[in-house]
Specification:
- About 80% of the residues lie in helices and about 0% in strands.
- By secondary structure, the chain is mainly α.
- It has one domain.
- Helix 1 packs antiparallel against helix 2 and helix 3 packs antiparallel against helix 4.
- The protein is flat.
- Belongs to the drug/metabolite transporter (DMT) superfamily. Small multidrug resistance (SMR) (TC 2.A.7.1) family.
- Pfam families: Multi_Drug_Res (PF00893).
Length: about 110
């Protein structure tokens, strides 16, 4: 169950970073509020997950989900262009996240 909370927390990290971009520097109140709500939910999920998972496992997976998810949002929602080498390194992040899960024994 801790892994489910961790994945949800990572998804909310993507949510809050997306709303932060949409808030235009916290100048749009609705997106600013959604950013803060997303942050709270993301941190809450991480807190719950770290009750049962080591921080050395939970934190890199949480940030990795957020990083990869934010890249995907940037590409598909904001039409950001990334070169192939950047996408290669994003792929390595994904491999790293999967590797941490497989080798963690949790």
């Amino acid at each position: 169950m801790a892994w489910i909370y961790l994945i949800i927390a990572g998804i909310f990290e993507v949510v809050w970073s997306t709303f932060m971009k949409l808030s235009h520097g916290f100048s749009i109140l609705s997106y600013s509020i959604l950013t803060i709500v997303g942050m709270i939910l993301s941190f809450a999920g991480l807190i719950i997950a770290t009750k049962h998972l080591p921080i050395s496992i939970a934190y890199p997976v949480w940030t990795g989900i957020g990083a990869v998810g934010s890249v995907l949002v940037g590409i598909f929602l904001f039409h950001e262009d990334l070169n192939w080498i950047t996408l290669l390194f994003v792929g390595l992040l994904i491999v790293g996240i999967i590797g941490i899960k497989i080798t963690s024994g949790e």
